[in-house]
Amino acid sequence: MERIIKISALLLFVTVFFGSCMEDADVDVTYYSDTAITSFSVTNFNTYHKTYTSDGRDSIYMKKEDGKKYHFYIDQTRNEIYNPDSLPVGTDAKHLICAITTAKSGNLFIKSATSDSLSTILSNDSLNFTTERIVKVVSIDGKYSRDYKVKVNVHKELADKFVWNFIGENEIFANSEDMKLVTRGKDLVAFVKINGTTEVHVSSMNAPAVWTKMTESFDAEAYKNAIVSGDRFFIISNGKILSSDDASVWKEENSSGEINRLAGSDNNTIYALTSNRVKKSIDNCHTWVDEMLGDNSSLLPAQEISFMTSPLKTNEGIARLTIVGNRDDVTDKYASVWSRLVEYTSTTENHAWNYIEQTSKLRYRLPRLIGLKVVAYADGLYALGGDAASADKLVFNQIYFSKDGGITWLKDERFIFPFRFMCDKSFALTTDGEHNIWLLCGETGQIWRGRLNGLAWENKN
Q1: CA of residue 443 relative to chain centroid, distance
Q2: What is the pTM of this model?
Q3: What is the distance between the alpha carbons of residues 354 and 458, in angstroms, rounded to a whole number?
Q4: Distance between CA atoms of 372 and 332, rounded to whole angstroms?
Q5: Which of 27, 39, 50, 349 has its Cα between 20 and 30 A from that of 448?
Q6: Residues β-bridged to residue 355
């Protein structure tokens, strides 16, 4: 009983002591809701675009935009407001009408961009957000305030514009008879047929104008077989499959089967063509198994072979593999296109390769292009090659685009050839993991790098 009385007395003392402290001290408590911005949006704004009149003169037109499509994020911890999805290129950020809501009817002010002066924000005010601005919230009783940093992001480039960048010229590529370019991480590796042999030249995406020749060379046809699987390079030279970790030191792989052409790799599975068959290896070319073919094997390509992997948008666990090339029959008017599905999450899947028949029923078919090269890029397949040859020069009429897995091939207005682009029968085309397309040109030795602006934004995000 005595113990209970002592504890009760102690609690009473603490209550009285702290109560008196709270009464004596001048304590101010600022509540979050007194000075909070609870929503921020740009309601309406204008964009300005360049066009041309019928007589070729420059002209500017205005377009009204709906700001509701662009969400603004409010970070209450850091007191920051910004839009993750930038407003479109050409936005007039000097005149933005914003809808800003505060808790408990707090008053809004915007700080001058050049001084500490404040201006009241009214509902229909046109605000200048070309730079980061400070928006101040003052509680309704005037006691408390909070500053928010507001940044309105605006795209500087058109999303669907493809931009080529000229890197420089290289004498090796200018003198090449043919070549193939592959990428691995930041590495650029060119397998160049020159003077009857295949040379290996290595560069970096950080310094693509500088190329270093490796000491080892291969037979004249070896460049056609150059592929990357995982972190290793593979090639066939003098009938032997070789691999390398650095494109400099090569070792022979003990392969159990005769392989004519390495086609490509997907998910560490290597695919090859041989004797009218498609084969695959899951152990770095040591053993091979036949793939199922759903059509006549005589329709398989034999030259200018490209291999692409295109993940399905509807199921990230499934991808479409595509092989495109030309047959040996020079009377063919159209390229040979084959595809199959691969399921990464299944251990029993066994889809067959099927030939995409290039019949007269298809209006838009892929022609048999000279030096045909195909890459998977953005939202489809892109094919480049010469429609005709004249005086040992290729005539490039257009870049062909397929968005349906190689069935139809159209002209994509987003993609145009680089300015001053010139190649003879030798050129190389590839992509990298940063959404770039790389193009090497014979005769001129030009090196080009191109990319869709919108894909560059995805990388930054």
Answers
A1: 30
A2: 0.70
A3: 33
A4: 14
A5: 50
A6: 338
* CA distances to 39, 205, 263, 406, 444 from 382, in Å: 44, 21, 17, 9, 23
3-state DSSP call for residue 137?
strand
Please identify which residue in the block is written with the tokens 């090859």.
Answer: 272
- Residue 303 backbone dihedrals phi, psi, to 5 degrees: -145, 165
Q: What digits encode the pLDDT tens for the residues 287-306?
A: 999 999 988 889 999 999 99
Strand-pair partners of 36 = none
| 303: β partners | 326
φ/ψ of 19, rounded to 5, equals -65, -45
Which residues are within 8 A (CB) of 418 and not within 5 positions of it... i.e. 6 or more apart? 164, 166, 439, 446, 448, 450
Q: pLDDT tens digits for 250-261?
A: 999 987 778 889
- Give the start-end residues of each E strand in 216-302: 227-229, 232-237, 240-244, 250-252, 261-266, 269-274, 277-281, 289-290
The residues, any chain, with a CB within 8 Å of residue 96's CB and separated by 6 or more, are 42, 45, 67, 126, 127, 128, 129, 152
Helix (H, G, I), strand (E, B) or coil at 377: strand
Residue 181: Cβ within 10 Å count = 24
The tally of CA atoms less than 13 A away on the side-chain side of residue 373 is: 26
Task: Pick 248 or 361 by higher pLDDT.
Answer: 248
Place of tokens 């590839």: 430
Q: How many Å apart are CA 85 and CA 69, to the nearest integer? A: 9
Say how far apart CA 312 and CA 403 lie, in whole Å: 12
Pairing of strands 145-151, 80-82: parallel
Report the alpha-carbon distance of residue 409 to residue 413 in Å, rounded.
13
Burial of 275 per CB tally in 10 Å (0-12, 13-18, 19+): exposed
Q: How many CB atoms lie under 10 A from the CB of residue 428?
A: 24
